[in-house]
Amino acid sequence: MARERLYLFDTTLRDGAQTNGVDFTLADKLAIAGMLDELGIDYVEGGYPGANPTDTELFGEKRKLNTTFTAFGMTRRPGRSVSNDPGLAALLDANADAICFVAKSSDYQVKVALGTTEEENLASIRDSVKAAKAKGKEVLLDCEHFFDGYKGNPQYALACAKAAYDEGARWVVLCDTNGGTLPHQVEAIVSAVCKVIPGDHVGIHAHNDTEQAVANSFAAVRGGARQIQGTLNGLGERCGNANLVSIIPTLKLKKEYADQFEIGVSDAALKKLSQISHALDERLNRAPDRHAPYVGDSAFATKAGIHASAIIKDPTTYEHVAPEVVGNKRKVLVSEQAGKSNVLAELERIGLTVDKDDPRIARLLDVVKEREAIGYAYEAADASFDLLARRTLGKVPAYFDVSQFDVNVEQRYNAVGERVTVAMAVVKVKVGNDSLISAAEGNGPVNALDQALRKDLGKYQDYIKGLKLSDFRVRILNSGTEAVTRVLIESEDESGDRWTTVGVSPNIIDASFQALMDSIIYKLVKSGAPA
User: Fold this and answer.
1) Where do the TM regions start and end (predicted)?
2) Which of these, 114, 27, 107, lies nearest to 75 by C-alpha position?
3) pLDDT value for 380
4) In this structure, is the dihedral angle defined by the CA atoms of residues 159, 163, 168 and 173, taken in order, positive or negative?
5) Staple 342 to which of 33, 308, 418, 431, CB 3.0 to 4.6 Å?
């Protein structure tokens, strides 16, 4: 049986830009558009030409994209003609394949927010769609406040949607603008709309204010809608938008949807999903959500020993899909609660084959429990556990030795008379028979220590060129004069691989140094550096 085509429309570059703390540059928008195109998204909404310099410049750029690049903006303003509306003119002249208009579809919003009549709002929709069609653009209409409008006055909400469809709009998109509609309501209302407008011209735009934007998107599909709008990682104002990173693999991998629908995302592109999700977070300079479905570091992580035993025998026991199909990987966590099964499973994952009755396994488990009792957290620090296991098995070369390090923080006036705080670190390293001394400044003591430590490692320098720190987390484990600090450092290399290391000490610099050392040594082991 032929499958129906379901279309994906991404609004990260506009809705995502409304997220608190997110501010895309032109370079960001072009890079993210390229990622979305590579993923196979059908429509990428770039922004609002004329609303700000970045979006105006974006739509003036020549782009080599296979996706339908879309401009967003308002229908003509009430009381103005199409030819006398600068905002509409900017939309019509934008270098875009399609235009997505937004219009009120709630009679209350028309009266209160726009201060106009219902008929004038309908005329504005008709005139704008007609003008865009005349320009040769594919046209979409976002029916803002549609679900609330439908609950209050279904005839008028439908009239707005139908006005756009009758004038030739390719898609009429029903927006749950305040995110308050529930899945059963979405399905019922979309079903009613699809009796008036064909479902293959109906889309859904859900906000996440009740944590149900993804569920509402699927409810709309069950109701007949054939376009889903959303953002990467669920970015968006307030609580965010429907998360395409969760929607895409569900459509691809869950039989209920995969048997009925096809989407533009190929199996090969699906394997890049985790990488693309993390790349967006990296561009935004924020840590990825470790617990994000499908792509989070913990999405396929198992801690309890009884679960680990089952996973060794049959991974599908506790995994609803294979992690590799979305570019993720299985993790069997090792902690003080773990059993031998967890340790064996993790050793197998990192490529160490050990007999299950080897006495070193029990010793390794004892060491983990002893160290976690004083504050180490190996379930959160996969690379540090890897090294601990290898050291227990005698498989970590003695690459180099740090004989001494010194870190100073100084506050002083710079050359232009500004008072600045500067951190400097000096590290003495022995590599084979060579003694090396490196110094570096940083924007803090840990950054300075990291820069100095990686400045010159002699024959190992080429192995760590692509290494960088992507996250730094500190936790005080107890209070008072006996306080102990735990530092977790997340690192990344040129291949895009990420790993986490841990250090524990009453002194935050010492704890950071432990984690930094583990990060560098793990990179050398990972790269196969010779002793």
Assistant:
1) none
2) 114
3) 77
4) negative
5) 308
**Which pLDDT score, from 0 to 100, does residue 316 have?**
66
Give pLDDT < 70 ranges for the chain.
Answer: 1, 303-316, 332-341, 479-481
Beta carbons of 311 and 319 less than 8 angstroms apart: yes
Whether the CB-CB separation of 105 and 114 falls below 8 Å is answered with no
Query: Do both 386 and 408 map to the same domain?
Result: no
Dump pLDDT digits (tens) for 323-332. 999 999 877 6
Asked, for residue 271, whether it belongs to a domain, the answer is no
- The tokens for 179 are 């995110």
Query: In this structure, which amino acid lies at residue 407?
Result: V
The 3-state DSSP class for residue 401 equals strand
Distance CA 164, CA 167 (A): 5
- Helical (H) or strand (E) element with 309: helix 305-313
Number of domains into which the chain is organized: 3
Q: Within the chain, what is the greatest distance between any pair of CA atoms?
A: 86
Same domain flag for 443 and 366: no
Task: Indicate if 143 and 50 belong to the same structural domain.
Answer: yes
- DSSP lists the bridge partners of residue 436 as 429
The rounded radius of gyration (Å) of the Cα atoms in the chain is 28
Alpha-carbon gap, residue 311 to 289, rounded angstroms: 24
d(CA 166, CA 40): 29
- Domain-located, residue 273: no
Dihedral over alpha carbons 520, 521, 524, 526 (to 10 degrees): -100
Amino acid at the residue 405: F
pTM: 0.75
Contact 494, 519 (CB under 8 A): no
Q: Is 508 exposed, middle or buried (0-12, 13-18, 19+ CB in 10 A)?
A: middle
Q: Which domain holds residue 323?
A: 301-392
Token match 């035993």: residue? 309
Q: Among 392, 416, 451, where does a domain finish?
A: 392
Residues 49, 53, 59, 61: what is their CA dihedral angle, to the nearest 10 degrees?
170
CA dist., res. 163 & res. 281, Å (int): 39
Report d(CA 403, CA 517) in Å as an integer.
Answer: 13
Task: Of 59, 44, 124, give the one whose Cα is nearest residue 90.
Answer: 59
In the block, tokens 């601990």 appear at 388
500 and 459 both lie in a single domain? yes
Contact yes or no for 450/516 (Cβ under 8 A): yes
